[in-house]
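Milestone M4 deliverable, item 7.
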Amino acid sequence: MRYPVVLTAAFSAAAIGFLIGISFPVQITPKVYPSSFVADDADSSTLGLGDSNVLGRFSTARNSCSRATSTVGASPPPSPILQQPNATAAEVVVVGPGKPKGAARLPPGIVVEDSDLHLRRLWGNPHEDTPPRKYLLVLTVGYSEKDSVNAIVQKFSENFDIMLFHYDGQTTEWDAEFEWSRQAVHVSARKQAKWWYAKRFMHPSVLAPYEYVFLWDQDLGVEAFEAEAYLRIVRRHALEISQPGLDIVRGVKTYDVNVRREEGGEIHTSDGFVEVMAPVFTREAWTCVWHMIQNDLVHGWGLDWNFWRCVNEPKKHIGVVDAQYIAHHFGFTLGDQGTEGNRGQVRDRASVEFGIFKSRVDNAEKAWTATTLPVPSDPNSKS
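Output delivered:
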């Protein structure tokens, strides 16, 4: 007769203890996949994180534990949810990579954010395909300049993938004449400029495998240049944005700071400035520069004056490589397509774009300065 009384007392004590326990604030760190709580288009209320009451915290933990239990045999999550002391449920911070926009409905293990420009065969085992190469050479070309382009490509090793932007619509002609062209990526859009292509076909997620990106014009003399030797120098001096020095005996210059110096070492720093004609970017620097390219401004005038924004300590990490140099022949082939008057009209538009870009940068910087965020300073500023 005593057993029912004892059992009743035990259950009553357990129930009272449970109710007392959940009535106090608790910190719970459930081990769940970050994606269980992060969805780019979902608000916190649909994820159970919007409630700060006791039952809300309890249900969140319970649901989290059930999800974690159901993933037995799966890969461990990248990182747990971390909660700061005294934080409410709405202040839970997820540590680890989130899903890219548009991938909220996919399981994390199937999401692939990055790509490359390496051509792949249509047969065989995909695991046996050759991997993407380490570096990328990108040239904006017209077929009339094929000899100059071929000379440039010959200076780049098999460690480079190659992409050509064709502004004249001629693509297949290259394959018939140059074997390397059959392994290159060809993008054709008539009468467009280099930075128009770059914004549309050089997204950082596509260039993610490449340690360095060469984004060059086609009218360059490369008799004194070797790409692999150039990169050894760039690495040695930790240059994140660079260009070869300019040989003004065989070519032309626009700015003195980019002219090759015959004495003084392998490189010289350039006050955070290299030209848009033959820049070389690290993967990280390119990611920043790509975001600075304006979608509606096709000529890129003014970008080079702002490359410094994409590098920490630009006076140290932006420079000109004197030991590997080129000649700029200053061809103006894009503007020559059409009547003679087109050349002046092209330059007029480029000049207008420069003013628009400068105004946008100035306005953006003023708005940024008005916030509490730190604003990088121009290395060439007098202040």
